Amino acid sequence: MNASESPKRRPPRNYFSRREQVRLFLLSGALTLTFILIYQAAQPSTWQKLFGDEGPPPVAQEEIDTRVPRKAVEDEPMEGAFKVVPPTPFTMNRTGAKVEAGKPAIPEEDLATIQDDSVFRQAEYGAWRQIFYALQKTPDDSLTPAQAEPVQFAQLFRQPDEYRGKLVAVSGTVKRVVKVDASKEDLGVDHLWQIWLFSGADANPMVIYSLELPDQFPTGLKVNERATIVGVFFKRWIYKAEGGIFTAPLLLSKSVAWSPPPQYKPMSMTQLGIGIAVSVVVALVIATLIFRKSNDAESVAERMIRDRQEEKFRSEVGEMDTGVSVRDQLKAVAAQLEQRTSDSKSDESESDETNA
After folding, report:
1. Can you give the CATH number for the domain in which 104 is found?
2. Residue 57 falls within a domain, yes or no?
3. Domains: count for the chain
4. Mean pLDDT (the chain, rounded)
5. How many CA atoms lie within 13 A of 254 on its CB side?
6. Is 5 inside any structural domain?
């Protein structure tokens, strides 16, 4: 076999080289990433974030102190968080008024009876009933978030006179929904829904009294639902809570803009096991392909070095004097041995003849 036809042998890998270390790092990183994806796929919260409605991220807001000094309310009755004033002999406004965006829901003289930083007062019940009556007469398509001015807690808290009696839209997380009694004779319903809504990152609530709730809307003292409520701002209302007496914007609404979140069925152990097994198989296949590709891959620099070495070897082989091959040398030695053996035999025969 000629030297030029000798098989090409790749040099052993140098695992201390930068290229080999980067290759091993990528391989181990691919395996680590695959196992992280397997773990995340097994978490229900991952699928809820991908396909559920988590709502917009909370917006940082200025912290507002809503605590009311005790002296300011020591003459006010504080029997419970809410008390509907019983029906009174005076009649409510039944002129067919409706709520319109940007306009007061009831006449200015009736709005003047509402007093901020107080509990519900007897003098305010007429305005209370008139606003609810106007909401009942207003079509639902006129009470959408697009028809109302979007506001935040601070706007209603600091500018109650500016928004009193007007249609506004508030968005946030509903934390509490409870049923309270109402006068069916005056409002046409025997109960209202008291809703506590927190907007954005604000720790202070807004309180809404609604005539209706959407189907399947959760109720109770522990609720956590994103919603938008379109209603009429009534007053800055006083309520009791742990730690003292506080104030909160209070609105009256007809319903709540809300869509139920999609229902997710929990994964069974069989489905989870199958998912993990498939993920492991896929990870092994990917790792094998990466490993094989990294073994078969050859850099341009390696090819150039090998080609140069091969060319140099071929040029040097042409100039080398190979001389007598080993086989020819062995044949010459064997011939010499045979010649010596034959010469020795001839000498012995001649010696025998002389002696004879």
Report:
1. 2.40.50.140
2. no
3. 1
4. 76
5. 20
6. no
* pLDDT tens per residue across span 202-240: 678 999 999 999 999 999 999 999 999 999 999 999 988
The answer as to whether 97 is a domain residue is: yes
Give the model's confidence band at 82: pLDDT under 50 very low, under 70 low, under 90 confident, else very high: very low
Residue 207 belongs to domain spanning: 70-253
Does the predicted TM-score (pTM) go above 0.70? no
Q: In this structure, is residue 308 part of a structural domain?
A: no
Q: What is the pLDDT of residues 102-156, one digit of tens each?
A: 677 778 888 899 999 988 888 898 899 899 999 999 998 889 998 899 999 999 9
**pLDDT tops 60 at residue 52:** no
Higher pLDDT, 255 or 315: 255
Total length of the chain: 356
Give the sign of the dihedral formed by CA 9, CA 11, CA 15, CA 20.
negative
